[in-house]
Amino acid sequence: MARYSISDLEQLSGVKAHTIRIWEQRYNLLHPTRTLTNIRTYGEADLRRLLNVATLCGRGQRISQVVRLSPEECQTAALALCNEVKPADGPRLNALQTAALDLNEVRLHGILDTAIDELGPEEALLRLGYPLLQRLSVSWREGSLSGAQERLVAQLLRQELLAATDALPLGAAPADAPRWLLFLPEGEWHELALLFMNYALRARGQQVLYLGPNLPLADVVAAARAFRPTALATVLTTVPPRGQVAAFARELRQQYSEGSLVLFGTLAVQATGLPEGVLPLACLHEFRDLIPFVNQELETSVAE
C-alpha cells in the first residue's frame, strides 16, 4: 500500500504542510502511522480525504464544517462541484486525481469529457490533464505509487487527443500554410506532448507530417528532404543523454538546415551549446503561442 510523507501531501494537494499539520492536530482530519524512527506517513485514504477537503475549502466552505462530513459525504460534495457550469480548475483536478488513485476509468472519462466539452481539448489538457500527470509522476518518483495510475491517465489523454485530432477536417490546411514535421528520436516513446503539438498545429490550419515515436535520424532527414518543412519539432524526455543533446541537434541541422528545429522538454531546455536555428521550449503553452508566428518570427526567436 502506498505511503506518503507530509511533503508528498503538500505537493500533491497544493495544501501547505503547516496547514495539513493544523488540520490533523485540531480536527483529527488524517490518521498517519509512524515509522520506527517516529516519522509520520500517510495512506491513500488520507490523500483522498485531503484532496476532497481542499476542494471544498477552496470553494469557501469552512474547515470546521467540512470535517464533520464522513469521507463518503466529503467525496460526494467535492465531486458535485465538478458539475457546475464553470467550475474552478482546482476541484476538477482534485476529483480527477481521486479517480486516478482509485483507478476509476469511468469517472476519469466522465470528468475529463465534461471539461473538454466546456473548455475545448487544448485548455482541458493544459489546465487539467498535464497538471494531473505531473502530480501522479511526483508520487511515482517518490515510490509512493505504482505506475498504474500514471499509465491510466496518460492513455486516457492519448485517446482524447487522437479523437480530437480525428474530428478536425481532413486536408483543411491551405497549400501555403507553414509545414511542420513532428517526430520522436530513436529510443524515445513518450508521445503525449507530440500528440498535443499535432492537434494544436492542425487546429490552426498548419500542414503537419506526423511520424511518431522511435524514428532513426536517417529516416527523419529523408522525410524532411521530401516534405521540406518550415520547422521540425520533437520531444526529448529520455534520449539522447543529457550531454549529447547539442550534438543531436547539430547533426540534424547539418543534414537538414532549411527548416528551424524546435526541441521540447527538460533535456532541451537544460542543454548548452545548441546550434543556430534551434529553439528549446519548456512548456506546451510556449509551443502553442509560437504557432501563429512561425513564418514571421521563429527564425528571429531562435537567433535571440
UniProtKB/TrEMBL annotation:
Keyword Oxidoreductase attached: no
SMART domains: HTH_MERR
Keyword annotations: DNA-binding, Repressor, Transcription, Transcription regulation
Molecular-function annotations in GO: cobalamin binding; DNA binding; DNA-binding transcription factor activity; metal ion binding
Chain ranges of the HTH merR-type domain: 3-51
CDD domains per record: B12-binding_like
InterPro entries tied to this protein: Cobalamin-bd (IPR006158), Cobalamin-bd_sf (IPR036724), DNA-bd_dom_put_sf (IPR009061), MerR-type_HTH_dom (IPR000551), MerR_fam (IPR047057), Meth_synthase_dom (IPR036594)
Residue intervals of the B12-binding domain: 177-304
Top-level lineage group: Bacteria
Membrane spanning residue stretches: none
PANTHER family: MERR-FAMILY TRANSCRIPTIONAL REGULATOR, REDOX-CYCLING DRUG-SENSING TRANSCRIPTIONAL ACTIVATOR SOXR
Name of the molecule in the record: MerR family transcriptional regulator
Organism: Hymenobacter polaris
